[in-house]
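Appendix C reproduces, verbatim, an entry submitted by the partner laboratory led by Prof. M.T., so that reviewers can inspect both the input and the predicted structure.
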Amino acid sequence: MALILTPEAETFLNEWNNPLPYVTAHTSGSTGSPKEIRLLKSDMRASARATIKFFGLNRSSLLYLPLSAGYIAGKMQIVRALEAGCNLSVEPPSNHPVLNIGDNNAEISLLPIVPSQIDGVLASGMTHRIKSMIIGGAPLSPEAERRVIDSGIPAFATYGMTETCSHVALRRLGDDRFEALPGFSFSLDERGCLSISSHTLSFGSLITNDMVELTTDKLFRWLGRYDNVINSGGIKIFPEEIEKQIAKLIGPEIRFYITSRHSDQWGEEAVLVTDCPKLPSGLLNRIRETVGSRTAPKATIIVPEIRLTESQKIIRRKF
């Protein structure tokens, strides 16, 4: 087993090898300020073993890490290498990963990245040497998903959180359903939100604020965050679903999101928020034709700036 580490990864490895039963991590801050939490090393090992089993990793595998070891995704890739007893190569995080694995015949068995690194990976000349890639940390646009599919890399979007020691489910790009990793199952609470159950991690069960369409206790389709749902005259509008459908009408270079504002007639109605002062002509009409008049945004609101979290997720506000 060989480990090629950055100083940040070495710092985590020192924490991993200390006698304490936990490591310190921080939540993403997507629903508020990031919080410091303690993750049991036994839970992290169990999570790593689930990923190892899903991808068939073993001692001959090569794992690569172009992410910060200061976040859960980076920490867990290191733990996976330790649990599998395989080689690991780490490089400093950037939007243009070098993917330097030396041997011309070597393949990267598992590569975790965030959406902002997709262009760099696709331009690296190494796509034919990536056996599996997982993408998480921020929403994946339909346009970016299509480019990854076209590259031929077997790739998956992740579903999980720091509290679950990274992902508990994966979605093959091109599919719309997330599949549970070994050791996890799903149900719905009374709101229609996902409840995660595990017989391998100490949390046992965890209720999320993610609304999903449950196919089986191992498969679900993600609809959106419960906090973001717009109730317009009794019709539930899922902003994230609308955003996926209309992204191609707006273009990848324009930042936007769907949110709600007060409506005297419906209680709430959808609006499109952007920090781009010039949108494609006739955009709202074309959106209405795409998603239907009842769920389409009724107006465009231009703001000076759309704020992002540290992990590049949009900070939404209602009007």
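The longest helix spans residues 41-55. Additional entries are available on request from the coordinating office.
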